[in-house]
Structures are given as C-alpha cells and as structure tokens.
Amino acid sequence: MDRKRRNNGEITPVSKSREWKLLYHEPGRPGLEEGSEYRGLCMYCELRKTCALPRPEGGVWRCENYIAMLRKVSLYEKVVKQLEEAVDVVHFDRDICKILAATMNELIVNFPVKMDDGGIKILTGYRVQHNNALGPYKGGLRFHHSVDIDEVRALAILMTWKSAITNIPFGGAKGGIQLDPAEFSAGEMEKITRRFTYALGNNIGPEYDIPAPDVNTNPQIMAWILDTYMSTMTPNERNRCSHVVTGKPIESGGSQGRNKATGQGIVFLIEKWAKDHGFNLKGATYIVQGFGNVGSWAARLMKKKGSKLIAVEDVTGAISNSGGIDADDLADYVKDKGGVLDYPKAKPVDHETFFSTKADIFIPCALENQITTETAQMLDVKLVAEGANSPTDPTGDVILQRKKIDVIPDILCNSGGVIVSYFEWLQNKRSEFWDLEEVDRKLYKKIIEAYERVRDTAEKFKVDWRKAAYIAAISKLEKVYKERGIFP
Ligand code: NAD
Q1: Which end of the chain is more exposed for a tag (fewer CB within 10 A), N or C?
Q2: Alpha carbon of 355 to those of 164, 166, 331, 350: distances in Å?
Q3: How far apart are CA 47 and CA 219, in angstroms?
Q4: Within 232-326, where are the H helices?
C-alpha cells in the first residue's frame, strides 16, 4: 500500500490504487461512525479533497468531487462504479469482481438494408453478452438513436444483476440498433429487424442468448426475429426454437401477461412498499415519465389500486391535471397519436413543472439519467419506483437520499419483465400454456421474494436499497464462481 501519514492523522494517497481506498474504509474505524462528519478523504475520491458531506446511512462516504467525477463518466463506467461501491461494503472476492466488471462477448454488426426508395442504408447493431454463469444470456433489444456499445454494455450488466436477484436461471445481455424508428416505414423496420437477426446468426439461440423487447421494440418485432431465426433452421429444428425470443405475441408462443409484466411487477412492488410503510394507495397521487409499454401499464395498474395519475411526460411533452388523468383513456390516445402531446383532458406543462409536481409516487419509465442534480431537487414525492433502467444519475441518487425519498431500484423494480420472459421460455420448452392468473401468481411470488431479499440485505449491511440490490446479486454470483472455480 502506497501512502504516507501526516501528523494530524489525515491520510494522503500517493497512489490511486483501490487497495488504499478499501483499507482506509475498514468498518468500525474511529471517525467513521454513523452520521459523523469527517473532514478528510472521501473513500472513493480519486482527488485529494477536504469535503464535509455528512455520511449517509450505511457504510458509504462519498464527496462532491467523487459525484462530480461520476457525472462525467459513461453509463458503463457508472454501472461498474456501482459494482465497486457494493464490493467496498461487503469485501467481495476481488478476482470475481474483476470477472463481473467485464463483459464476456461483444458483437457489432454493420448490415445493409434496402429502403423503400430503392437506396441502401448501412445500419449498426449491437449485442453484448455480459455473463452466463447463472444460465443463458438474456436481455432486451433497443431501437434508438442513443444506442452505442457503451450503453449496451451497461444495460447488459444490469440484466445479469436482475436475473441474479430474482433467482431466475439466466445471465445478462443487451442489444440494439442505432436508429430513430420514426425515420423508417413499417416495411423498412421489418427488413431492418430481419437483416439484423440474420447478422446475429448463431450468436443468439434458445439455449444460448434470448432477446426480448425494450425501448421501441415490441411483440411484432419479436415475431419477425423468431420467424427469421426459424427460417435459417433445418425443418426438424424449426419448431424447437420458439424460445429464441420472449415477449412474442401470444399466437406466436408468447406468454399471457408478458406485455404488462414489467408494469405489473412495478405495481406489485409499490403495493408491498405501501403495506410495509402503512401507506394507503387508494387516493394516493402518482406521476409517470414515459408512457410506452412499461409506463402505460404501470399507470393503468395503479389506477386499479385507486391511485390518481396527475402528470405524465414522454418524448413529445408533458401534461398535468390535478383532478386526475385516466390512464386507460390516455393509453388509447397515445396509441392513436404517438405521444401525450395535445391530450385534450389535461393541460400542457413544461419539463420543470412536471418534475416539480407534488405527488406521493414517481414512476420513471423512459430512459436513463432522467433524475439528475436538477430534477432530483425538484421532486416532491415519497417514493421513486424505477421502471426504467438506470433513470437516476449518481448526483440525483445522492439528492434522493438526502431528501429521504425511498427508491425501489431499477434492477429490482423493473424485473417483472425478465421474470415473465423466463415463464414464457419455460412454457415454450415444455409446450405448455399458462393462464394469466397462474402467470401473475408466479410473478408476484418471485418479485416479492426479490423485494424481501433486497430489504433484508439493506437492513443487514445498513445500506440504501440500490446498493443492497447489487450486494444481493453479486453475493449469488460470487458463490457460484467460488463453487465452480475458474476453468481450466
Ligand atoms: P417504450 O419504447 O415502449 O417507451 C418508452 C417511453 O419513453 C415512450 O413513452 C417515450 O416517449 C418515452 N421517452 C423517450 N425519451 C424520452 C425523454 N427524453 N423524455 C421523456 N420521455 C421519453 O419502452 P419501454 O419498453 O416502455 O421501456 C422503458 C424503460 O423501461 C427503458 O428504460 C427500458 O430499458 C426499461 N425496461 C423495459 C422492459 C420491458 O419489458 N419493455 C423491461 C425492463 C426495463
């Protein structure tokens, strides 16, 4: 360890090694008691700093410099930092953490597609397979202009944690194509999807890597992927591979309840949170960002609990109505018009007004990094239920903690999608069809078990729920690696 000790007891790093940081943060060290103010070095800070941020609950000590540094890092780096923070609390095996910080396979494909006007467009698609220690790679496909290798890597890692905390036998993967779907006709989207599937070839497969819907992809796109994949198989194999994708239309082997699964999981968890906090959902108010698959289902299912939707934001704009917005009616409107803009039964509001709306619950269901320093300061809610992947940036996270806003973190909160994908995969393998009641019952059991696992971990290590979710996931993977060892 490379360090020197000053007379006043302050430790100055002369190396940036993580070893130093871990040693410094040995639990129980004098001066690091719960809630104490410590003027010295932040456990994560790469810079030598004197900061006075009160130590939040649990063993985490982060200064503003560290947070500022995180703001500049990519989504992938952010996810790896979150892994490191969890490792710092529990002292997981560092070699296993090295494995988990890296992705196993990364595929980038450039493929030509003939457009409606006869011209050729070259598109870029990605598939990143993060880890398959627990089972086949599993994760969605996103069609969005922001898709790049960094984003896909980060989202693939989150999938591994999600499968691990929900105890389902899948690993983590993610993929997508960098495009804006609004620029293409339906026919072009079909050709793009099929050509991408062909380019992926045997890098996906029902027992190897199983895609599913994500932003701007849906059951129709899954049906095209299935059909293309099947068409490349021999006649004998063709009917044995319907589980190469999940989130398919019911008629093509999809599961009852998969379309609403992510929203359903969110609402099961909000209900559980409400029960644990003696909070009545009847008459409670909520706001939703993103009104696609996840957001619209979460909003509609919250309506069934008697809660009142009072503001919604999507890519087209934001709307508000303190008297309540009918989520089913809005879903019909969005289906027809493509967004919430100009919805006649609510007034248009700007981004700041949306985020400042006083409500009991905020359900972000759009993209990553929406809850930032600025927007977290505006939020006036009791609970953030993260439907989207990584909707909170590190600075936003600290502010939520300071404001004592509860957070159900993404890898737990939106895991209903992958849980019911697993059910769909099982049904396909066994040639079974479960009814909706059975799917919902099994989803409830799995997701509530995951909730309890995260809650108990948070209590045990005295950490926030995000870190607890990471710890629960990594503990499981660490055990598996220790049992099996590293080949050869
Ligand atoms: P979707 O394409 O159906 O909907 C996305 C929504 O986000 C749309 O309403 C869109 O208008 C809105 N949006 C996009 N950019 C926005 C912006 N800048 N500001 C405000 N709103 C914006 O996608 P989805 O499947 O509902 O996925 C939403 C989130 O949930 C993503 O983070 C995704 O990774 C995550 N997720 C989805 C599933 C699933 O089963 N579909 C499962 C787990 C997690």
Answers
A1: C
A2: 32, 31, 21, 9
A3: 48
A4: 235-238, 261-276, 293-304
Q: Is the CB of 163 under 6 A from ligand 1?
A: no
Query: Which residue's CA is the nearest one to ligand 1's atom 38?
Result: 214
Instruction: Specify whether 174 is catalytic.
Output: yes
Burial 445-466 (b: 16+ CB within 10 A, else e): ebbeebbebbbebbeebebbbb
- Enumerate residues 6+ apart whose C-beta is below 8 A from 207: 136
Terminal CA-CA length for the chain: 31
Residue with tokens 């992958």: 418
φ, ψ for residue 241, nearest 5 deg: -125, 25
Q: Which residues contact 427 (CB under 8 A, 6 or more apart)?
A: 253, 255, 433, 434
pLDDT tier for residue 395 given thresholds of 50, 70 and 90: confident
Q: Does ligand 1 lie within 6 Å of residue 63's CB atom? A: no
- Residue 269 · residue 385 · CB < 8 Å: yes
Q: What pTM did the predictor assign?
A: 0.88
> Per residue in 150-175, pLDDT tens?
999 999 999 999 999 999 999 999 99
CA distance 416 to 300: 16
Span 415-439, mean pLDDT? Answer: 98
Ligand 1 pocket, residue 166 CB under 6 Å: no
Q: Please report how the helices 94-101 and 465-484 are oriented relative to each other, as an axis angle in degrees rounded to 10.
A: 110
User: How far apart are the CA of 94 and the centre of ligand 1, in A?
Assistant: 34
Comparing CA positions, the residue from 403, 411, 412, 365 lying closest to residue 382 is: 403
Please report, for residues 18, 44, 46, 128, 299, the alpha-carbon distance to residue 5 in angstroms, rounded to integers and kept in the order given: 17, 18, 17, 44, 56
Q: Whose CA is nearest to atom 39 of ligand 1?
A: 214
Which residue has tokens 């591994």?
Answer: 160
